[in-house]
Request: fold
Amino acid sequence: MKDIRRKVRRTQTITPFGVGGIIDLQGESFVAADIRSWGNQGDPVESPRLARKLRVRGFRSAAVIPSGKAQYVSRRGPVYVRFPRWLFCPKCRVMTLWRHEAEQRDKPPRCGRCPNSPQQAPMRFIQVCRDGHLGDIDWQRWAHSRAEGHDQRQCRVRSLKFVATPDSSGLDALKVMCIVCGAYRTLEGISQKHVLKQIGVRCSGSQPWQTSDDEKIDCEETPRAAQRGASNVYFPLVHSAIEIPNPSDLDTDDEAAQRVMTHSMWEELIETGDAPITDVIVNHIAKKCGVSAEFVESLRRAHTADTSAKPEVNSAIEDLSIAEWAAFTSSESEKDSTDDFAVRQVGLGTHTDDPLSLQLLHHRVGLVVVADRIREVRALEGFSRYESEGRERLVSVNPVARAQWLPAVESYGEGIFISFNEDALEEWESSPAVLRWVEGIEGNLEASFQIERLREKTGPRLLPRFVMLHTLAHQFIRQLSYDSGYNAASLRERVYARSHPVGSQDPQQAGIFIYTAAGDSEGTLGGLVRQGMPPHLMDTMIRLLEAAQWCSQDPLCADSTGRSLANLNRAACHACTLLPETCCEIGNTLLDRILLIGDGRVEGFFRPVIQAAFEESAAAVDAP
Reply:
């Protein structure tokens, strides 16, 4: 594979252009190869808690090549392979199946037939399957799939044109035509579910970057055509953790347990159960990891017990959120600050003579914590295609062996953490109207193809507080983009409102954390910390609640009974609540302004605050 350089930001190597993702660069299209292409390159990223939960030995981030030095250093970091291989000339419309041997350093593919050699463009449609495979459509077969004469049916020449006619503006105006025999077919109906199967096209069972040395899979899934930039072509599974002061991190047993659970034979040990070979594998792992066989056996039995007791719970996500919640709410956190985690508890700044609206707001808010400095690590575990179906069809970043490390990126920033009064929340959540309202969203969640991914955040049951606090976090980011000087895409959310399994001793959570983690200097400008200090935070919260009252799409937005994919949103649209994808941890779902502000059907958690603020404003206007 030739060494051809293109510029990609380090954060983009995780999402949206991580392993398996397609990137467009100045008219060229590439797909990111798996982590085998990294070799031994990459900068180490430390995150012991996340590594233990994902059962890997560590993380690496793509090495940064200094500006202007690319031509002087050897290849470092991820490899991107040109995809799709089918290209066409925008002038003569002749299609070419590109070969890697034809690549020229820092030069895009060009047409050799036309004057001035115009740059060739990639075909718009590709094929994907539910098992995560990706490939080019067999355009030669497509062009001849409706052949009429004998010569057309027998034609095997791969000489095609991609023709655009002025007949209409739809796909029926685009056709792939054989230059030799004249057979053609338009792109009308290409997105239908079984259209590729009907013409005899099968899934390739591979990825574009795989070589002849990789074992090909006989995939039985039906391939489906999709646009190259469609949202269902790539669903990355990204985990994140905020590095907190060692809650119980890395004592001797933890280090030993991590070595055991990241051993290459650990998964085989779990699968064997109580088979006779189990003792042999236990002794082998114990010897290689420098621990006793009893220690390995105790870890195996504990893993088996946890899996059978809580099969539906992703303990990795739950444990991380619990430790972070404890770090933010602990009174000792300020004393235990580190270079990666520095926080201070501050109040809203209310006084006894404040207006009623501020007193009601103070009654609903628990702790306010400003984070002067945090470090977040985001790691890519794998991806899926066609539908985000969780781990069942997850394609690993190393598809041929168990990944010992994962690609990751670390970023520094600042933020505001707000917890809310548990008594006030429980009183609001116990309302029958609120419970019935959220049961409708829960029903749509159960029927959604995203249920496994969303349950990792919501817990086994969707609580009203989760939808309300998630909506509040979105409104908070939108308001902070005006007040703090950050653009909305530079801010991220974390919602702490998980439900826990029955019998769990874990503490109840009710809070949000809004932070910057943009990976550049904008992450530590101090704007968020300033907005978290009194009296700025009170003003920001009052303004965001007032803004949440109105939407330019009302009454359609406010009266909605289901929006977005699988109707997982209620009163939430681009005009009032939705954010850039980089901001939201669950893809702009499970949002509803009504649970914030209320209406005639259900009481909003902050409804009394808003009513008091309106009455005070009216009184101020009427005052002489």
